[in-house]
Amino acid sequence: MRYAVWNNKGGVGKSFLSFVLSTELANSNPDKKIILVDMCPQANVSEIVLGGNGKG
Predict the structure, then answer these.
(1) Which residues contact 25 (CB under 8 A, 6 or more apart)?
(2) Are 45 and 38 in contact (CB under 8 A)?
(3) CB–CB of 45/18 below 8 Å?
(4) Pick from 14, 18, 17: which is nearest to 34 by CA?
């Protein structure tokens, strides 16, 4: 099963939705591998998942 979250407009919550969706999928399917790909130039999801400080 594959999911994609995409929207051309900025500020619509794509990063947040992607993070929450992948977290919930991982929690409800502990036997499955969940891959989250952050293709946003701001890398907001990557920063959250990898433990960044939010300052870029």
Answers:
(1) 32, 34
(2) yes
(3) yes
(4) 18
Task: Give the pTM.
Answer: 0.69
**How big is the chain by its Cα radius of gyration, in Å?**
12
Copy the structure tokens of residue 55: 């300052």
Q: What is the pLDDT of residues 23-54, one digit of tens each?
A: 999 999 999 999 888 777 777 777 777 776 65
Q: Which two tokens stand for residue 44?
A: 């907001």
Which distant-in-sequence residues (6+ apart) come within 8 Å of 46 by Cβ?
Answer: 38, 52
